[in-house]
Design brief:
By secondary structure, the chain is α+β, with helices and mostly antiparallel strands. It has helices at 23-31, 34-37, 82-89, 121-127, 140-147, 193-203, 216-227; strands at 12-14, 19-21, 46-50, 53-59, 64-67, 77-79, 108-110, 115-117, 155-158, 164-170, 173-177, 187-189. 26% of the residues lie in helices and 22% in strands. The strands form 4 sheets. A 4-stranded antiparallel β-sheet has the order 3-4-5-6, covered by helices on one side. Strands 9-10-11-12 form a 4-stranded antiparallel β-sheet. Strands 1-2 form a two-stranded antiparallel ribbon. The radius of gyration is 17 Å and the shape is globular.
C-alpha cells in the first residue's frame, strides 16, 4: 500500500510488548522502516541522560530513537550507536579488528573504517535506509544514516541461541547471515536493543547516566553525506 504523506501521530500500541509509540517517534518509526528496521518498542518514551544531555528517548528491539528538538527535520530524531555500544560492552575494540585495504569487485569499501561490505550483506545494506530526501529508493547516505559505517569484516560468532553465524558489525547494527532463509530474510538484523536495555537497567545508578552514548558527529556526518549525495 501507499505511504501517508503526513505521518500518524496518535498512539499506536503493540500487544506483544505492551508499549505504545506516538508523536514524532511514531512518525519517524513508520517513515523509516518500522517493525522490520527498528522492531517493537521495549519501553515508553522517557527522559534519559545521554552524554550529559537530557533527551526524550524510546528503546526498540534494534535501536534507540532520540529526540533532538534543536535540529531541523529529519535530523530531529537520531539513532543510538548500538553496534559500537554492544561491542564496547563485550570488551571488544573494533579498532583491533583486522582491516582491509580495498574491496573486491561488486563490493563497497569504506576507507573511514577500513572495511568492505559484500554480498549477502551489501543488498540488505543498500535496500534499507533513513528517508532523507523524500524520494523513492535509498541513497548511500540514507543507508549509512540508518546503519552507520562497517566496524568489522564478516566474521563467525556464536550468538545467544548457541549457534554460529557469519555476522558483520556496523556502528548502529549487526547484520547476520541466515542462508537457510529465502531472500530478503537471508540477512537479519541483530536485536541489539535487548541486551543493551538489560545492562543499562542493571548498571544505572540514581542521578547518574548509564553506559549509553550517541555520537555528536553522527549528525554532522549525516548532513555532510546528504549534502554531498554520497
Amino acid at each position: 500500500g501507499g505511504h501517508p504523506v503526513q505521518g500518524q501521530t496518535g498512539q499506536r500500541c503493540f500487544s506483544e510488548t505492551g508499549f505504545c509509540i506516538e508523536g514524532r517517534i511514531r512518525e519517524y518509526w513508520e517513515q523509516n522502516g518500522g517493525l522490520s528496521v527498528f522492531g517493537l518498542p521495549l519501553g515508553p518514551q522517557q527522559t534519559e541522560t545521554i552524554e550529559g544531555k537530557q533527551l526524550q528517548v524510546q528503546r526498540f528491539e534494534r535501536n534507540r530513537l532520540e529526540i533532538h528538538p534543536e535540529n531541523a527535520r529529519p535530523y530531529d530524531v537520531l539513532l543510538g550507536r548500538l553496534g559500537a555500544d554492544r561491542l564496547a560492552q563485550q570488551g571488544r575494540d573494533w579498532q583491533q579488528f583486522a582491516k582491509v585495504g580495498g574491496a573486491p569487485a561488486g563490493c563497497l569499501y569504506f576507507a573511514e573504517t577500513g572495511h568492505s561490505v559484500c554480498e549477502p550483506f551489501l543488498s540488505a545494506f543498500r535496500a534499507n535506509g533513513l528517508e532523507l530526501d523524500g524520494r523513492r529508493g535509498k541513497t548511500l547516505a540514507e543507508s549509512i544514516g540508518l546503519f552507520g559505517l562497517p566496524l568489522s569484516e564478516p566474521q563467525v560468532e556464536t550468538l545467544s541461541d548457541g549457534k554460529n553465524y557469519t555476522v558483520q558489525w556496523f556502528e548502529r547494527a549487526r547484520f547476520e547471515s541466515h542462508p537457510e532463509n529465502a531472500p530478503p530474510y537471508n540477512v537479519l538484523l541483530g536485536l541489539l536493543g535487548l541486551p543493551l536495555l538489560v545492562i543499562v537497567a542493571v548498571t544505572r545508578e540514581p542521578g547518574r547516566a548509564g553506559p549509553v552514548q550517541s555520537g555528536g558527529s553522527y549528525l554532522q556526518t549525516l548532513r555532510y553525506l546528504h549534502a554531498n549525495r554520497a
